Amino acid sequence: MKKTVVIVEDDRGLREQLVTILETAPDIKCLGAFMSAEEALPEILSKLPDVVLMDIKLPGMSGIQCVAEIKKSAPNMQVIMVTIYEDSERIFRALKSGANGYLVKSSPPEQLLEAIRDVSKGGAPMSSHIASKVVKHFHLVGNSPTESENLSPREREVLDLLSSGFIYKEIGDKLNIGTETVRTYVKNICQKMHVRSRLEAVARHKSESY
Question: Which residue among 47, 79, 188, 202 is least crowded, i.e. fewest CB within 10 A of its CB?
Fold first, then answer.
């Protein structure tokens, strides 16, 4: 079954470019592309796509506010921020609002498509230098260095691999366990670390190694 996607991007040229990229993938279907959060939100909640590609800076309601609204009604919907903004505060706010991934607009088309596939499987796609900024932000705001101490050895293994950029299937292959078992471990990790998303768990874990 094709993964369904909705795009929210106010730049017409980029919006059309994203649609074109999605049309090249046989396993992905674009359900619509919108220029504002106000226009997109009712359509997103009506069509319930698998993934939303969301710009941060939009006319009117921001992308971060839109993510928060989406998550209120559809908490399991996957949202990837696609933006030119790389400052830590915007990234952190997007993450806190419930974003599941964060890519810069300069990312190559194949990386965007892989991010959609990855996040649909439970991954947390994030450009490597974005990950570094998020980690530094968590470090600077002073998270407790002992938050992951109560993780089991296997949970810590899973978190280490997740922090290294591996998706669930790859983690399962490395540890000789099923993908669903990996999902269960990640769910337990997030609960123990008191975080809302895989992205935040990875970022906090990495910040503890500084």
Answer: 47
**Based on the domain organization, do 73 and 171 belong to the same domain?**
no
93 Cβ contact list (under 8 Å, min separation 6): 64
The dihedral region occupied by 202, where left means phi > 0, alpha psi between -120 and 50, and beta the remainder, is alpha
Answer yes or no: pTM beyond 0.90. no
Q: Is there a domain that residue 67 lies in? A: yes
Q: Which helix (H) or strand (E) holds 4?
A: strand 3-8
Task: Answer yes or no: are the C-beta atoms of 55 and 8 closer than 8 Å.
Answer: yes
Place of tokens 């997030």: 190
Q: Reduced to 3 states, what is the DSSP secondary structure of residue 78?
A: strand
